[in-house]
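From the pipeline queue, job 12 of 40. The input is one protein chain; the requested action is below.

Action: predict structure.
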Amino acid sequence: MFCARVHDLRAFELLDPLAKFGVTLRPPGAYTNMTQRNDTPPASNHRNDAPATKAKTFLRQHRFGLLVGGLFAAVAVASIANARPGAAHSMCGMMHPQDTTATATPDPTGKVLITADARGFHPSSIETTKGQRTTLEFRRTTDETCATSVVFPELKIEQALPLNQTVTIELPADTSSTLTFQCGMGMYHGKIVVR
């Protein structure tokens, strides 16, 4: 019976982070068999008490850190569970895979409208003919994207994409290879296939 009472009091102590500072929240009359300064239970007659005593001592010494760690873990799990799907736009393409199935061709005037949104560039693939004058019109529709600029590495072109404004880029008519474009961070990609 006494051992069970000591275990109950030790569990109560784990919930008492102020005990390190000399303030205790123990119930009245607890630990009456112990001295004021010595906070250890009387020696037990059980042979296998040494590992249990070490565990109790460890828990008593680190109870505040364990309490803070548990609270931190609970807050982290709650924040992950409540996160909006599009809120982590800094992860760019890792949150929303880019649609790579759409292929577009220029209209009769040679223009192609490309939208930059939270999922990347749409369309992400454009086919054009060699010698045809092609104008790409980029329009960013959201702030929740890393596609705030477009980069053409082969042409050494980088253009900012202001929100809800059209940015025009003329492609050279003599190009005969595949050109790539990407966002400024290199997360979203697109290509222009010249045939």
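Job complete. The first strand starts at residue 103 and ends at 104.
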